[in-house]
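REQUEST FORM: STRUCTURE PREDICTION
Request ID: SP-0412
Submitted by: Lab K.M.
Chain count: 1
Length (residues): 190
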Amino acid sequence: PRNLSFSPHGLKVFNSDREFEYMLKKAGISADLTALNDDELWKIYSSENPESIYSKAKMKAAKRYKNYLDGRIGMLIDITARNRQRVLGLKKQLEEMGYDAHMVFVNTSLDKALERNNMRKRKLKPDVITSMWYQVQENLDFFKALFGSNFLEVDGNINKTDKGLGLPNKAYKTINKWAKSKVNNVIAKK
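STATUS: Completed
RESULT:
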């Protein structure tokens, strides 16, 4: 959630969607991408098109991410875990710089993912959401093994109104515990 902050621990939330949504608004384009045909989507939302708004937003977000890294600022990286190589690469990069890497895997049912897609401003086509959901589910056991005791799976089927902030207390307690813990990474200790 945009209003969620772990600033008492100095953590910054990194989510490249922020730049993308801002650039869509600036260009006067609706965030509801379901109405676009394939050609329009390629121009706006394709990572394969370097001129797309999405590609340009990713470049801006990459600069912000690099600034956080250069400052060794603690981060909560908010991404869809459908690309295991991306997560693996981020984890490796962070650990090589001295970070301890943890993963909070917010797991939802497909129905809940589709429902939330329909409720937000930036909507994707249902078949895109479905495909991404299955990719994420296929990666769950891989991430559990990769992060080991630094992995937390959270039930994401809870609505904000169910628990106030939208995540169980266990997630907040675990994130707070991780944030307050001394760094274990050997590179950081050096």
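NOTES: The chain has a mean pLDDT of 86.
Reviewed by: T.R.
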